[in-house]
Specification:
The complex is a heterodimer of chains A (220) and B (306).
Chain A: H1 10-14, H2 22-36, H3 49-66, H4 69-82, H5 112-115, H6 117-126, H7 128-134, H8 141-151, H9 155-162, H10 166-173, H11 183-196, H12 202-219
Helix pairs in contact in A: 2-3, 11-12
Chain B: E1 3-8, H1 16-29, E2 34-39, H2 46-49, H3 59-63, E3 75-76, E4 82-85, H4 99-111, E5 116-121, H5 127-133, E6 138-143, H6 147-167, H7 171-185, H8 193-203, H9 205-217, E7 219-227, H10 235-247, E8 251-258, H11 262-269, H12 273-276, H13 281-296
Parallel strand pairs in B: 1-5, 1-6, 2-4, 2-5, 6-7, 7-8
Antiparallel strand pairs in B: 3-4
Helix pairs in contact in B: 1-13, 5-6, 7-8, 8-9
The chains are: A mainly alpha (220), B alpha/beta (306).
Chain lengths: 220, 306
């Protein structure tokens, strides 16, 4: 008879080696969940309700400990003290890749732009030049660039925030009509651009931009 | 000495007889002298699958001492190298075999002179099935990817575990053990083989050591039958893993066998599926499975009855 599941260490629970990389731990966790989830065909009828819950709790705890670099280090230290893990010249963790997923990361502080939403809005409302441009009948790419410069936002930041390719953004701002994407995509791009700069109304400004483009197309 | 392979699976309709007959045909085709024994007592129909519609003698002739030697109940089948001990025409009370008769059959089986002996066991976890299952250390479990069938496989594995422990004790000792287990682990724990093992370890350390050696010498194999396209192909290995991790049995995954509607047609026409539809996925799976099983047999020991 094997050891009781509850007495296994976290590495044994997840079936990984102590030098497993973070992605391996995640894979192992997903694989175990497939086996132990309540709706899993594999463990159907194998456990009673309490047993399953106990196992799921253990899995969860094992995963959350091992996926977090700091807690994993502490846990390794515990295991070394208990003599379960050998500390071969501090090699534990030496081979590990760094985690792509940072467990201590806090959500909501992703970019500076998001933080500055309210200040940006204020700026848009107060700036005379921006209001002048926004009251125009047609808005060109150059106008958009002017607004961006007035607000002091770098084009790279917009590219980072909106995930629009830099060459498209430059083509838009410099009115290189031939290099622009198809209208359907362009509309979306313009809207995200405007949203990023907190300019309202989104639809209205976008329509006026597209009108301007249409006129340029006719003139040519 | 013969390789004896019991094939069981807990649930009815999971394909035990079909697998037995198919494996038998493949092995016979490889030139190995193969014997199929229908031990699904009381519901035998292996003879139909190997095209012996009117078996003239059967296992119960041996049980009732009409034929003194088990060798003489063997029937030839239309397939060269393939032989059969039928379970048809059994007496209506044969399903409830007394223990001495069972031991007699088990002894006789282990003395038969064939290269391969495949035992087709019945559904359920009656003592008959369990004892025939435990005759060899090479066993095949068969299941389908359905909760009902998987449930029964787990049940069967636990029952075998339980039965094996039981065989090490006489009735009085076992009752004492039962009381101990209930005292230690509470009501209902007697159904958990691992609790019993712990109690055995405490009360009879030498027997527990024997038992552990015994269990680790078993080589169970799992076949996942009737796998449809939409089913999870990783299911079999996962089942093996969970049995190994929580019950401590080493179970090797032997392979998937694809579902095919034409199996039904072949059975209805009473022809060999492998001959009638040799180029189907299912036939390919069955041939691969047989190859793997033939190659995986190391020397095996017969247990207790030889």
């Amino acid at each position: 008879m094997k050891k009781n599941f509850a007495t296994l260490n976290y590495y044994e629970i997840l079936d990984v080696t102590p030098d497993a990389a973070f992605f391996e731990i995640r894979h192992a966790y997903n694989a175990s969940m497939q086996m132990y989830r309540a709706d899993s065909l594999v463990s159907y009828s194998f456990f009673s309700l309490e047993e399953r819950q106990e196992i799921l709790n253990l899995l969860e705890k094992a995963y959350l400990t091992l996926i977090n670099g700091k807690e994993r280090k502490n846990y390794d230290k515990e295991l070394i003290q208990l003599g379960i893990l050998d500390n071969v010249g501090g090699k534990v963790g030496a081979k590990r890749s760094t985690g792509i997923y940072d467990a201590s990361r806090q959500w909501g502080k992703a970019t500076v732009l998001k933080d500055n939403k309210s200040t940006l809005k204020e700026k848009v409302a107060q700036n005379k030049r921006i209001n002048e441009i926004l009251s125009k009948q047609e808005i060109s790419g150059a106008d958009l660039k002017a607004i961006r410069n007035e607000l002091g936002v770098a084009i790279e930041k917009i590219a980072g925030e909106t995930k629009i390719r830099m060459d498209y953004l430059i083509s838009i701002e410099e009115d290189k009509v031939k290099r622009l994407p198809a209208a359907a995509f362009l509309k979306g791009f313009i809207k995200s651009y405007l949203k990023c700069l907190c300019i309202e109304p989104l639809d209205g400004v976008c329509v006026r931009y597209m009108d301007g483009l249409a006129r340029i197309g006719k003139d040519n | 000495m013969a390789h004896i392979w019991p094939i069981g699976g807990g649930k009815g309709g999971s394909g035990k007889s079909f697998l037995t007959s198919s494996l038998g045909r493949v092995l016979a085709g490889l030139g190995k002298k193969t014997l199929l024994i229908d031990l699904d007592l009381g519901a035998a129909n292996l003879h139909t699958l190997v095209d012996v519609p009117y078996p003239v003698k059967c296992l119960s002739d041996f049980i009732r001492k009409k034929i003194p030697l088990l060798e003489n109940t063997v029937l030839e089948t239309p397939v060269p190298n393939l032989y059969l001990i039928s379970g048809a025409h059994d007496n209506l009370d044969v399903a409830n075999l007394p223990y001495e008769r069972k031991v007699k059959i088990l002894k006789a089986i282990s003395k038969l002179n064939y290269e391969w002996i495949l035992l087709d066991l019945g559904a359920g976890t009656s003592f008959n099935t369990l004892d025939f299952f435990l005759i060899s250390q090479n066993n095949i479990f068969i299941t389908t990817p359905e909760p009902t069938s998987i449930e029964n496989v787990y049940r069967l594995v636990r029952s075998i575990y339980f039965r094996r422990i039981r065989q090490y004790f006489n009735a009085a000792d076992f009752r004492v053990l039962e009381e101990e287990v209930i005292q230690q682990f509470g009501e209902g724990s007697f159904n958990k083989p691992d609790c019993i093992m712990q109690a055995v370890k405490r009360a009879h350390p030498e027997k527990s050591l024997q038992l552990e050696n015994d269990f680790s010498s078993f080589r169970f194999r799992l076949v996942l039958n009737q796998l449809r396209k939409q089913d999870n192909i990783a299911l079999g290995p996962q089942i093996c893993k969970i049995i190994e991790k929580h019950l401590g049995f080493q179970v090797d995954f032997a392979g998937n066998v694809a579902f095919d509607d034409r199996v039904h047609d072949a059975v209805c026409q009473r022809v060999s599926f492998l001959d009638r539809y040799p180029y189907t996925r299912t036939a390919y799976d069955l041939r691969e499975l047989s190859k793997r099983i033939v190659n995986s047999t190391s020397e095996q020991l017969l247990m207790r009855y030889s």
